[in-house]
Design a protein that fits this description.
Blueprint: H1 7-29, E1 57-63, E2 74-82, E3 92-101, H2 105-109, E4 112-118, H3 125-135, E5 139-144, H4 147-156, E6 161-165, H5 173-184, E7 188-192, H6 200-204, E8 207-213, E9 217-218, E10 233-234, E11 246-250
Parallel strand pairs: 4-5, 4-6, 6-7
Antiparallel strand pairs: 1-2, 2-3, 8-11, 9-10
Length: 259
């Protein structure tokens, strides 16, 4: 019988070898874990810009009926759309609307501050009427025949309507420009003149002289203007003026309210 001189070494070697083989078997037999998801790809390039849209245009027309229509004493008709042909006119309509003013003439003038200027007292009827309306509490009246005082009142007072009558002398350039600025800033103006050289204020009001003079009748195309008046009404010469009336025609966006 033979006895090994290194029994522990052989045993340990045998156990180590067996353990390594078992470990290799276990490693070789395991499935690998799933891989992680890949990162999202970069966003694609932006698309080309779309064609530029057409600008929205608006056309407006004012009207004043001879009698109230559906409670409407005055109206503005608006048309919205696009110019697809390039001729400057709306040919593709997007929207139409009518803005109605239901105020009666009494309401329309109630509480307004009126600045009245006249360079002559030859026709006091206008002043008499305005003073009567003031006495009834319909309006507040400021009155002067002095151009400098007129400028001061227009500057310092809260004025809603200017009534400026040129009857004897041509309007000076400074006053004409002041009235034109008043209109351009949205002010309301009633203006009379006999002088055809006076074009500054009529131009601001979008009107020009037609050449007609001393008209004998006036027909009203505006319900407010013709309120409580005969239509047509006779036009008279109150002070034996050589020229007591002149015709006007509208220009640009001007509107004729009496013919």
């Amino acid at each position: 019988m033979k006895t090994s001189l290194f029994p522990n070494v052989i045993l340990r070697t045998t156990l180590l070898t067996a353990s390594m083989m078992l470990s290799l078997g276990l490693i070789a037999g395991c499935n690998g874990s799933d891989g992680s998801d890949g990162a999202d790809g970069a966003d694609g390039a932006a698309g080309d810009a779309g064609p530029r849209g057409l600008p929205l245009l608006v056309e407006a027309e004012r009207s004043t009926p001879h009698s109230p229509t559906y409670g409407c004493w005055a109206a503005e008709h608006r048309l919205y759309g696009y110019d697809t042909s390039g001729d400057g006119e709306i040919d593709d309509i997007a929207l139409t609307e009518t803005a109605c003013n239901p105020a009666t003439p009494e309401i329309a003038v109630s509480g307004k501050a009126v600045l009245y200027f006249q360079d002559s007292d030859a026709t006091p009827e206008f002043m008499d009427t305005l003073q009567a309306l003031e006495a009834e509490g319909v309006l507040e009246l400021f009155h002067t025949t002095d151009a400098s005082e007129f400028e001061t009142l227009l500057e310092e007072e809260r004025i809603d309507v200017v009534f400026y009558m040129i009857q004897r002398f041509p309007i000076n350039e400074e006053s004409a420009n002041r009235l034109a600025d008043w209109v351009s800033d949205g002010g309301r103006l009633i203006y009379t003149t006999w002088n055809t050289d006076d074009t500054t204020v009529p131009t601001a009001l979008e009107a020009e002289f037609s050449g007609a003079t001393n008209l004998e009748q006036a027909s009203f195309d505006n319900l407010y203007l013709g309120w409580q008046l005969d239509d047509p009404s006779d036009v008279t010469n109150p002070a034996t003026w050589t020229t007591y009336s002149r015709g006007l025609t509208p220009t640009d966006q001007g509107l004729s309210v009496c013919t």
